[in-house]
Amino acid sequence: MFVYSAPKVLEIFDSISLEEMGKAELMDRNDLKFMFRFEQLDYFLKEVSNFYQVLEISGKRLFKYETVYYDTASNKLYRNHHNGILNRFKIRYRTYVDSNTGFLEVKLKNNKGRTVKERISCAKPVSLSEIKSSSFICSLVTINPDELTEKIDVNYDRITLVNKFNSERVTIDLNLTFLSNGNETIVQDLVIAELKRDAKMDSQFLKIMRDHNVKIGSMSKYCMGMAVLDLDPKKNNFKEGLMKIFKLIKK
Question: What is the Cα–Cα distance from 103 to 105, expressed in whole angstroms?
Fold first, then answer.
């Protein structure tokens, strides 16, 4: 299996530390997602290099993320997304491999299109019924943590850009891998870029996406993985999006 490494063009970016970036976490924001081929990434990065800093930790600019998503036996959270339910949410445990830290997260999407993320720092829970995990989840959403089990692992490598001039971040994900019950699928050649902003403002990355006719996408990694690994029979509403993704990476 070929795994993409950090693009060399990242060396021309000014860097920003995790501490500096943490001063504006953008936990309540507007998100825009784009998907394109890896071969386009160097050009896009070069075009925006004067407008963004890149996150650097211990000399590294590409970081490993491992995420476990939780759902009910009937895949209620997945199906809410599939069916277009507003005010939906996802529950996940994310490990930042390079810094050896982890967070239990609840990510909510409200009916106004805003994403609100709440999280607590903790070791990965054996069960979401544990007091700390259960209390955190129940304080945010109306679901019984006892009903939630690990559903799928979604792993990838991430580059994080921070706008020099306003409150905006761009995350760029490579080497997307889905795992569940011993089955693994790697989505080769795909790049998923996501703009995270607290308001509608000028964005050089958004401009380059529009200039090159890169369309806004909406499929979450969790839903993509569930559909790709065939973990739920209900996926008709995702078929068109999946076809576009796999057509893109097979060019």
Answer: 6
Give the bridge partners for 108, in sequence order: 89, 116
Q: What is the CATH number of the domain that holds 215?
A: 3.20.100.30
Antiparallel, parallel or unpaired: β 114-121 and 101-109: antiparallel
Can you give the C-alpha Rg of the chain in angstroms? 18
Bridge partners, residue 55, by sequence: 16
Asked whether residue 55 is domain-assigned, the answer is: yes
For the chain, 251 residues long, the average pLDDT of each consecutive 10-residue run is: 85 94 65 94 97 96 98 97 93 95 94 86 96 97 97 98 92 97 94 85 92 90 96 95 90 66
pTM comes to: 0.93
Name, in order, each residue with C-beta under 8 angstroms of 211's C-beta and a sequence gap of 6 or more.
Answer: none
Instruction: Provide the residue type at 99 as one letter.
Output: S
pLDDT at 14: 98
Q: How far apart are CA 117 and CA 121, in angstroms?
A: 13
The two structure tokens encoding residue 137: 């989840």
Cβ atoms of 222 and 178 within 8 Å: the answer is no
Read off the tokens for 113: 């299109």
Tokens 């690990």 map to which residue? 150
Q: Please name the residues in contact with 201: beta carbons below 8 A apart, sequence gap of 6 or more.
A: 166, 167, 168
Query: Is 1 a member of any domain?
Result: no
